[in-house]
């Protein structure tokens, strides 16, 4: 252990964060108090949890609380807790660095636009560093519960790149933070200002927040009265209070505390469940996706409490992965306190909570979807942020697959926006249609303009347009809805002969064209050789001469490209070239004799079809040369 005073430099990211924060969050400086109280509350939670196994950690003082004091003469605000405290290594690791995963990506996302960045910074959580919004010097003294008095730590910084750290004697456990206020932050020295911030942001903190009250004025002849210490907040766990007593504002402030968010949530769910297991859920849907939603180690956002004692944060055992964006608290009476987290996490009570919470979150989405209208865009907004997570749910959650399927919203040939549910699709199916048709492509434009859609347009049949990366996986897991099969229109043979008007007549015409195209197909097969699995006529094209399809059980071309881009070494699947026997280009081919002409035509047809899928021909320059030769003929 080093007893000497040392000077350390902040991690680069901390410097960046401090700099950004001071310049972007100028309008909302009061949040520093929320953040510091929040940390003090977490520290008390941690102590209470550790003390369930080792009572000695209380050091004879189990009255956990936060004390706040303003000193007008010294121009300081002090925030003191008797929570878990920190040892020297913890101080260095926790305040001076940002250890969170995704920090680099976070800084990459910052745009330079102050308002937008303020949101991001809010999501990221400024925590302790928000002290520097109001202070030009911050002094922290702390001692971890259970350590000897000689193992206290003093940390001090002016927020400009460096901090000092020193080992000191500290009698009481826990953390004391002294903010030496900037001149323009003097308003925070007024105790009414502090109490109003505490009411606004910290009423729900389950520990008492105490301040020195204002003394009653002394009556004539009386001795001067001394001020008494008062508890400023409600100091009860919010989720244990009855719904009827709670205002939207209280709910929202609690969300901001646990969700580390600036914005109000989009929706919430507060329920006490009594059955075989007893538990309370207070869960929120954020307005925006957390910045790390798509990173492998995305933080889960639900905290576990047992009989109001905090057990663990952001645990993955409380909700399935696809619901990782949900924030909130689950509290149960049915788990023992003094066993390890590992044992807790395997208990049947945890399993029951996870199942129950999942169901209710899906119920919350269903309610939002039901209420959707031109004036109520909540569900549409939620879909934009979390739709792809719900798609993961189709893959991950067998039990709830049917419910989740109803929550999905798609673009289709009738709607560019992702607003069409499968129920709506089914209700709009044409006569005799018994299949839900979809197409997958790299981009929305490629899907929307795919030649595969031509016959569907002609017959007025709606097709679901899938262009998100996850859609390939989605479609392989979602094979049926409401008794109707889902079918890719770019796979296998297509039989639409029963659908649409004039079906009989068209069928006859087409059959004749198919017959006359037979010699052309033979020519193409010879010319393309190994490049294709087969060449055949199709009635799915009305304007384009050709398209590529995958065999019914082969991987789609789009899937193959996604996997290859992801670096997977997979064998190429040969596509089937389908031609439109009625197209002028195909008819022209029938009249060609020269082998090299036929080969060029065949290549052009094949490469065009490739381009229409949004992929590049194998030899782009060759393609261009052949087209140009044709154009100048
Ligand atoms: P966050 O709270 O989001 O983790 P902070 O920057 O606010 O980020 O705090 C970083 C870490 O410092 C906390 O996770 C905690 O481990 C530690 N810490 C902060 N304040 C306290 C405190 N009052 N008592 C004990 N530990 C604290």
Strand order of the largest sheet: 1-6-5-4-7-3-2-8-9
Bound molecules: adenosine-5'-diphosphate
Helix/strand-derived category reads alpha+beta
In total, the number of strands is: 23
Q: DSSP strand (E) fraction?
A: 15-25%
Q: What is the H level of CATH, i.e. the homologous superfamily of the largest domain?
A: Histidine kinase-like ATPase, C-terminal domain
Largest sheet: 9 strands, mixed
Q: In whole angstroms, how far apart are the ends?
A: 86 Å
Q: Give the % helix.
A: 25-40%
Number of helices, counting only DSSP H or I runs of 4 residues or more: 21
CATH class of the largest domain: Alpha Beta
The overall pLDDT average reads 88
The low-confidence parts are none
Shape: elongated
CATH fold descriptor of the largest domain: Heat Shock Protein 90
**CATH level-two architecture of the largest domain:** 2-Layer Sandwich
Rounded to an integer, what's the Rg over CA atoms?
Answer: 33 Å
How many structural domains does the protein architecture include? 3
Short synopsis of the structure:
37% of the residues lie in helices and 19% in strands. With 633 residues, it is an alpha+beta fold. It is elongated and about 120 Å long.
